[in-house]
Amino acid sequence: MMSWEILPAAQEELQSAFSHYDVIDARLADSFYANYLVNRDRARATPEIYRVRRHEIRRINLGPQFEEWYIAFLLWNGKFVVLAITHAKRRPFYFSERVAAAKKLF
After folding, report:
1. C-alpha span between 69 and 86 (Å, rounded)
2. Integer-rounded Cα radius of gyration of the chain
3. CA 67 – CA 82 distance, rounded (Å)
């Protein structure tokens, strides 16, 4: 399994989504986070099966309960780099500007 990194902005998005669901129900928030972990690790194990969308960015959708959420990631220097934890109804590819930052950081 590939080692991984997460951009600070993506970490903030993850925390924001978790907090959003935590206000609704703590179990829902825990389910969201668990879903994130399972899908992140699934993508780390076989990242090449997720096609490149744009600007080297790949994505994995979170699964059925949170299907409108996805993890945008980049493969860089042998690492799985999380660029964003985002909702499909947000601006598309707003996080593409993070590719250059990820390459500098990692």
Report:
1. 6
2. 13
3. 18
d(CA 64, CA 40): 15
- Which tokens hold the place of 52? 């490149």
Provide φ and ψ at 75, rounded to 5°: -100, 120
- Give residue 1's pLDDT band: very low, low, confident or very high (50, 70, 90): confident
Q: How far apart are CA 64 and CA 58, in angstroms?
A: 19
Cα distances from 41 to residues 31, 32, 35, 37, in angstroms, run 15, 14, 10, 6
Which residue type is seen at 4?
A: W
Two tokens, residue 3: 């080692």
Taking only the tens place, the pLDDT of each residue in 82-94 is 999 999 988 888 9
Q: Has this prediction a pTM greater than 0.85?
A: yes
